[in-house]
Amino acid sequence: MTFTILLLGLGVGVLVGLLGIGGGVVLVPAMVYLLHYDQHLAQGTSLFILLSPIGLGALRQYWKQRQVDLRAGILCALGMLLGSYAGSLVALPMPSKILKGLFGCFLMVSAILLWRKSRHDDDPFGKISEPKHG
Description:
Blueprint: H1 2-19, H2 24-33, H3 39-51, H4 56-64, H5 70-91, H6 96-120
Helix pairs in contact: 2-3
């Protein structure tokens, strides 16, 4: 079990750095299905893991490339602090079955929205293509 948890952390760390996702999007489902955690336990453990500076390695690389909006990051972090407290007050008394369903719906809606956006982007790399000479 220790090795599985370590591999899970390594895989999630790669995804955090690669895709800039919050680790909880991967951690919570993995803990529920691979480690057989209850939804509440998975979410609480994920929050504990995310308290540490796990993103600092990736942040350093993005910062060096000038790909960090410091003002937006600080403001959003303050909002997340307040919002996470409010969300926990709602989630904790909720039955795990309902909470798991809400989490799944959130992931599906997010996936659909990202998929639709990617289909409408002209340039998949977000850059203006150079004119072709020829």
